[in-house]
Fold NADH dehydrogenase 1 beta subcomplex subunit 3.
Amino acid sequence: MSNLPLYRDPWAKLDAWRKSPVFQRTTVLRNLFPGFGIAVVAFTAYVVADNVYLSSRQKPEEKQH
């Protein structure tokens, strides 16, 4: 006995692209926002640098009488 399936799907070749790794959900989600990771790092560095800069230029608090 051969191990061939009992039926043959005539559309198998046409649907083969759906199983391609290019169209998998994780690949699509990873490539949805290509520069997002770099933008998060750049924005975090900006916020940290801005807070350090502003804390060094802080005005001395005025004394109340």
About this structure: The helical segments are 25-30, 36-56.
